[in-house]
Design a protein that fits this description.
Elements lengths: L1 H19 L1 H4 L3 H12 L2 E5 L4 E5 L3 E3 L4 E3 L3 E3 L4 E11 L5 E11 L2 E3 L4 E3 L1
Antiparallel strand pairs: 1-2, 2-6, 3-6, 4-5, 6-7, 7-8, 7-9
Length: about 120
Protein backbone atom coordinates (compact mmCIF):
# COMPACT_ATOMS: atom_id res chain seq x y z
CA UNK A 1 0.00 0.00 0.00
CA UNK A 2 2.85 2.39 0.83
CA UNK A 3 4.38 1.72 -2.58
CA UNK A 4 1.18 2.90 -4.29
CA UNK A 5 1.12 6.11 -2.21
CA UNK A 6 4.74 6.84 -3.09
CA UNK A 7 4.04 6.25 -6.78
CA UNK A 8 1.05 8.61 -6.72
CA UNK A 9 3.03 11.24 -4.83
CA UNK A 10 5.86 11.09 -7.38
CA UNK A 11 3.41 11.16 -10.29
CA UNK A 12 1.62 14.18 -8.78
CA UNK A 13 4.92 16.04 -8.30
CA UNK A 14 5.94 15.32 -11.89
CA UNK A 15 2.56 16.51 -13.17
CA UNK A 16 2.70 19.73 -11.15
CA UNK A 17 6.32 20.38 -12.16
CA UNK A 18 5.47 19.84 -15.81
CA UNK A 19 2.61 22.33 -15.65
CA UNK A 20 4.37 25.05 -13.70
CA UNK A 21 7.59 25.03 -15.69
CA UNK A 22 6.27 24.59 -19.23
CA UNK A 23 7.15 28.20 -20.08
CA UNK A 24 10.80 27.54 -19.15
CA UNK A 25 11.20 25.15 -22.09
CA UNK A 26 9.67 27.71 -24.49
CA UNK A 27 10.00 31.23 -23.00
CA UNK A 28 8.61 34.37 -24.58
CA UNK A 29 11.06 36.51 -26.58
CA UNK A 30 11.14 39.09 -23.75
CA UNK A 31 12.06 36.45 -21.16
CA UNK A 32 14.63 34.83 -23.46
CA UNK A 33 16.25 38.21 -24.17
CA UNK A 34 16.39 39.05 -20.45
CA UNK A 35 18.14 35.76 -19.63
CA UNK A 36 20.56 36.23 -22.54
CA UNK A 37 21.36 39.78 -21.38
CA UNK A 38 22.08 38.54 -17.86
CA UNK A 39 24.38 35.84 -19.24
CA UNK A 40 26.26 38.46 -21.26
CA UNK A 41 26.63 40.53 -18.07
CA UNK A 42 28.37 37.67 -16.24
CA UNK A 43 25.49 35.75 -14.69
CA UNK A 44 24.98 32.00 -14.63
CA UNK A 45 21.34 31.07 -15.23
CA UNK A 46 19.65 27.78 -14.31
CA UNK A 47 16.06 26.60 -14.56
CA UNK A 48 14.34 25.81 -11.27
CA UNK A 49 10.92 24.25 -10.70
CA UNK A 50 8.93 27.35 -11.69
CA UNK A 51 11.57 30.09 -12.11
CA UNK A 52 14.88 30.76 -13.77
CA UNK A 53 17.59 31.74 -11.29
CA UNK A 54 20.50 33.89 -12.47
CA UNK A 55 23.39 34.58 -10.09
CA UNK A 56 26.59 36.56 -10.63
CA UNK A 57 29.64 34.46 -11.40
CA UNK A 58 32.07 36.92 -9.80
CA UNK A 59 31.20 38.49 -6.44
CA UNK A 60 31.23 42.18 -5.64
CA UNK A 61 33.79 42.74 -2.88
CA UNK A 62 32.57 45.08 -0.17
CA UNK A 63 35.52 46.30 1.88
CA UNK A 64 34.92 46.40 5.63
CA UNK A 65 36.33 49.02 8.00
CA UNK A 66 39.33 48.05 10.11
CA UNK A 67 38.77 47.30 13.79
CA UNK A 68 40.99 49.44 15.96
CA UNK A 69 41.80 49.36 19.65
CA UNK A 70 44.61 50.73 21.82
CA UNK A 71 46.31 47.39 22.46
CA UNK A 72 46.40 45.83 18.96
CA UNK A 73 46.14 48.90 16.77
CA UNK A 74 44.06 48.54 13.62
CA UNK A 75 43.28 45.09 12.24
CA UNK A 76 42.05 44.88 8.67
CA UNK A 77 38.79 42.94 8.28
CA UNK A 78 38.03 40.58 5.39
CA UNK A 79 35.87 41.92 2.59
CA UNK A 80 32.29 40.71 2.22
CA UNK A 81 31.61 38.74 -0.97
CA UNK A 82 28.21 39.75 -2.34
CA UNK A 83 26.36 38.26 -5.33
CA UNK A 84 23.38 39.72 -7.16
CA UNK A 85 20.73 37.09 -7.81
CA UNK A 86 17.61 37.27 -9.97
CA UNK A 87 14.59 34.95 -10.00
CA UNK A 88 12.67 35.30 -13.26
CA UNK A 89 9.05 34.22 -13.65
CA UNK A 90 6.99 34.62 -16.80
CA UNK A 91 3.44 35.94 -16.62
CA UNK A 92 0.68 34.56 -18.84
CA UNK A 93 1.16 37.61 -21.07
CA UNK A 94 4.78 36.60 -21.71
CA UNK A 95 6.20 39.53 -19.74
CA UNK A 96 8.90 38.47 -17.27
CA UNK A 97 8.68 39.38 -13.59
CA UNK A 98 12.07 39.80 -11.93
CA UNK A 99 12.78 39.34 -8.22
CA UNK A 100 16.21 40.66 -7.20
CA UNK A 101 18.12 39.91 -4.03
CA UNK A 102 21.70 40.13 -2.80
CA UNK A 103 23.30 37.11 -1.17
CA UNK A 104 26.52 36.95 0.81
CA UNK A 105 29.11 34.19 0.64
CA UNK A 106 30.13 32.96 4.08
CA UNK A 107 32.44 29.94 4.26
CA UNK A 108 31.55 28.92 0.67
CA UNK A 109 27.78 29.06 1.37
CA UNK A 110 25.43 31.70 -0.01
CA UNK A 111 23.36 33.34 2.72
CA UNK A 112 20.68 36.00 2.92
CA UNK A 113 18.71 37.67 0.25
CA UNK A 114 16.40 40.64 0.46
CA UNK A 115 13.95 40.45 -2.41
CA UNK A 116 12.41 43.20 -4.44
CA UNK A 117 10.04 42.65 -7.37
CA UNK A 118 10.30 44.43 -10.70
CA UNK A 119 8.22 44.22 -13.86
Amino acid sequence: MALHRNFYAIALCALIAGCTSSWIADPSPATRNLVNDLRLDGFECNARLSTIECIQKEPVRQKQPSKCDSSKGCVEQPALLLYNRYHIEQQDTGIPTVHHDVVQQVESKLLGGEKGAQQ
